[in-house]
């Protein structure tokens, strides 16, 4: 009886270790042949009871994983899955842009992947984004709290992947992560001196199109529009003269400023605010109603791909809690 109990405990220990250490993915539905890079997916439990389960995709550098930098990538939103960064922005595979016919969405290799020179952890955060979930109901959160949770994730992830502890480490992301990343960098820096051994080898951070101070950013749209020849010199000079740099919360008594701001909006309301060189289209939602000619059709395709059962099985997503969600970036 004692021998059987010992065997059972050893088996449970092995299974537990296997579940926590991540799973290697060699094939992805929609991609022809084996993956030409090393992909690991898994969950890291956060909290005293590990009630929060954060899902990640880890891709090793294609050059020199032992020495190349280690990056964590955080998408914005808030609430975008990091799969968006992997498949839309800087990963080694991307969605093939084609009209969806009900079959599996195709993936193709890219030539611009950051994984050519860096190891990257793509993290689904906050909880509820992508495949991350919580076993218990969560209350209100904040950017500061999210930074602390991501810091805990990194500590646990590195404890399970100690071979990357000495690699130069960078925090990277875009959009709303312009608020989360500075807080996370501060949390890591503080932890390196106060609580956490071994320290994370933090070297810096990278922000793409970050949200920082929305009120100021709205104001900067007008000089940007002028610089990109979207509005005339005359209108720009009138806006500067009458609004004195404040184009958002305009004093209702300042009729000249209000009139010129209205003219500005008339001149730019057909412009794609996410990317002025792309055609404007219906970006109210990423659904099948969105025209395939529209850039935002990609958001519909990524949902079709990620919600496919074969894809979730290949990624080792837990069936009960998987709740993929992609939201448009706040840029």
Explained architecture:
- This is Serine carboxypeptidase.
- It comes from Eruca vesicaria subsp. sativa (Garden rocket).
- Keywords: Signal.
- Residues 1-21 form the signal peptide.
- InterPro entries: AB_hydrolase_fold (IPR029058), Peptidase_S10 (IPR001563).
- By secondary structure, the chain is of the alpha/beta class.
- It has 2 domains: 19-212 and 283-314, Alpha/Beta hydrolase fold, catalytic domain (Rossmann fold), CATH 3.40.50; 214-268, no CATH class.
- It contains 9 helices and 10 strands.
- Strands 1, 2, 3, 4, 7, 8, 9 and 10 form an 8-stranded mixed beta sheet that branches.
- A hairpin with a 5-residue loop joins strand 2 and strand 3.
- Helix 3 packs across helix 4 and helix 6 (233-243) packs antiparallel against helix 7.
- The longest helix has 19 residues, at 2-20.
- The protein is globular, with a radius of gyration of 23 Å.
- The model is unreliable at 5-19 and 325-331 (pLDDT under 50).
